[in-house]
Specification:
The complex is a heterodimer of chains A (about 110) and B (about 550).
Chain A lengths: L1 E4 L9 H5 L5 E2 L7 E2 L10 H5 L5 E3 L11 H6 L5 H6 L8 H4 L3 H12 L1
Antiparallel strand pairs in A: 1-4, 2-3
Chain B lengths: L14 E10 L3 H12 L4 E4 L15 E2 L7 H10 L10 H20 L16 E2 L1 H14 L3 E3 L4 E6 L5 E8 L4 E12 L19 H8 L4 E2 L6 E6 L14 E3 L15 H8 L4 E4 L5 H10 L1 H10 L8 E9 L6 E2 L13 E3 L7 H4 L8 H24 L9 E2 L14 H12 L2 H4 L4 H17 L10 H26 L23 E4 L4 E5 L12 E3 L1
Classes of the chains: A alpha+beta (about 110), B alpha+beta (about 550).
The complex binds flavin-adenine dinucleotide and iron/sulfur cluster (2 copies).
The site of one iron/sulfur cluster has 15 residues of chain A, from helix 1.
Chain lengths: ~110, ~550
Amino acid sequence: MIELVSQSRCIECNLCVKVCPTNVFDEVDGGAPVIARQSACQTCFMCEVYCPADALYVAPEAEASVAVDEDRLIDLGLLGSYREAVGWGPGRTPGAAKVDATDYMQEKIRKVLH
Amino acid sequence: MSDAFSISTQQNEPLELTADVLVIGGGPAGTWAAWSAASKGARVVLADKGYCGASGATAPSGVGVWYVQPDPEERAKAKASREALGGFLADHSWMDRVLDQTYENVAHLAQWGYPFPTNERGEQVRRGMQGPEYMKIMRKVVKQAGVKILDHSPALELLLDFDGVVAGAAGVQRQENRPWSVKAGAVVIATGGCAFLSKALGTNVLTGDGGLMAAEAGGEMSGMEFSNAYSLAPAFSSVTKSAYYSWASFTYEDGRVIEGAGSQRGRSIIAKTLLTQPVFCQLDKADDETQVWMRKGQPNFFLPFDRAGINPFTDRFPVTMRLEGTVRGTGGIRIADTTCATTAPGLYAAGDAATRELICGGFTGGGSHNAAWAISSGYWAGGGAAAYALSLGEKAHNRRLRGAGRAALRPAGAGFDTAEIVRGVQSEVTPYDKNLFRTEAGLRSSLVELNGLWRAVQGRPESASTTEGVIQARQAAAMVATARWMYASAHVRTETRGMHKRVDHPAQSPEQQYRLLSGGLDTVWVKPDPTSVAAPAPKETVSR
Ligand SMILES: Cc1cc2nc3c(=O)[nH]c(=O)nc-3n(C[C@H](O)[C@H](O)[C@H](O)COP(=O)(O)OP(=O)(O)OC[C@H]3O[C@@H](n4cnc5c(N)ncnc54)[C@H](O)[C@@H]3O)c2cc1C
Ligand code: SF4
Ligand code: SF4
């Protein structure tokens, strides 16, 4: 579930409010958005992919809210890690363009199954 | 509108629009439909419950697509590969059409700038799309085609003219807190499947709303017994990406291997074990080189592991099988002709909201058919809706309309608690011993429960005073309707075929090689589809 809107990183663009499919965030006048309906979060990570400031953290736990610590997430390199993997952001190549693993994988799957 | 359903809090002034074509849902099917209709000169509005581009099953995941070179041998192989799995219910002419149209449309996607990777010969490899990238491009293309997009605007009901012809839809804009309505010459339903709020990746917006809306307007369903798709995921996580579990071994808590358990053929054994105890997993069959490729191929597969501090190749982690219902099932709204018209005049259906039996019978398995179907059926439904709407001329916008929605919208009974209805449906459709391993007695007892829930949602939701409350109550009603068509169909199909498993009828019965239609609201009916393979004389079965 969504657990963090970093107050220090957020640039108040409200993109997360716009893109979240289940309407979890509320806009705040002159501030970072708030997580208004956390239990509606479907753990889809889309807000993270869109956030231009790497200010959001979606914890992998889908059923339960967990405590997170911003400094620790930064140390572990997790803030913005999924946006990087998808290849969005200035100077990055879209992950979609990088490889085609299909042939390789299909061959490997065949070997594993037989 | 005079008979508008009411929400008791103050809402802002309604948004009222007119269009030639209204598309409901903005995933792959909806965006292809909107683009197709706009390309034929129609004025198009697209309304999505969430955000067109980030919402639905494809956006956060990505899809392999049934993209096959127009080479007769390859095409024949592609068609044959799923025939037996699907229980021989697919239709060759539809498979051919979908293979052709998908091939053509994926080429458009390449032109629009989707960054397909290239192989060593420098050719684009077009067999799959990553979700965020694909849907970002589709949103851009649709906007450039002049389509007006309404985000965060769930449709709640269809609007009918006084001859009962579909002529628009109405809903609410959840962020603006106001009602919307669109008067349209034709409507395309592309609201996706129904995964019953299971939190499988990206699916909590998919609650079967389109099926309920269609049924209220005279639409029928097909293949609803093929609705019990479950996908593997780490137990704590939403990420239902199953492909990589081919490299897994499955173990009991004490580390002993579970004999026969596997991601493809051995899923039933995993489910059976999960009924009584946790199942653990480790991707220990992947060598170093494979591990590197896996990371590049599906970055979202590794998200939950990296964040939970698990190395899935060396650590054991608990797994679950999350319900994906009709999203990776094949049942949905019945398609009546090659333009993807439904049996309700003025109404078209596409993508997961519609039946996919035409191309894969009772089983989709490792995807790709669904993505191809969303692209092709969306394209045809948009084109069909545009032609129909434009043929109506001015008449289209001079009709007097009424809302078709009933359950949870126009109270005819006592109050109900939405959360309780949702829990009630989930406790019938989620458990493996009810939905995956089906029996006569189990289905009958579930139908009794579900019929009770259906009577309850005829009343007034206690949450009806807020916009969110109305949306959720209506979603709950749609889930109840979907579950009733599912289990009524599963009850009638006294055999095992496709993904539908009857523990009390474990064999495929040659006499039942036909598709099953279903429908009805207060009274649910099921009957063989007379147009499908080897159908006997129709016999209707009614369950109250
Ligand atoms: C994890 C996962 C992996 C998958 N992988 C593959 C694969 O590899 N290959 C493959 O072929 N298929 C795959 N599928 C299936 C594939 O994602 C779907 O078939 C595809 O997304 C269907 O497209 P759609 O447009 O019909 O529905 P969706 O993409 O689900 O979109 C439906 C849209 O309708 C909107 N909506 C819902 N209700 C309303 C309403 N009342 N009013 C307005 N809007 C509404 C939703 O917000 C959503 O945007 C996968 C599915 C999942 C869950
Ligand atoms: S998307 Fe990121 S930067 Fe923009 S408002 Fe949300 S948290 Fe802040
Ligand atoms: S993870 Fe998905 S559902 Fe949760 S807040 Fe982010 S966008 Fe919304």
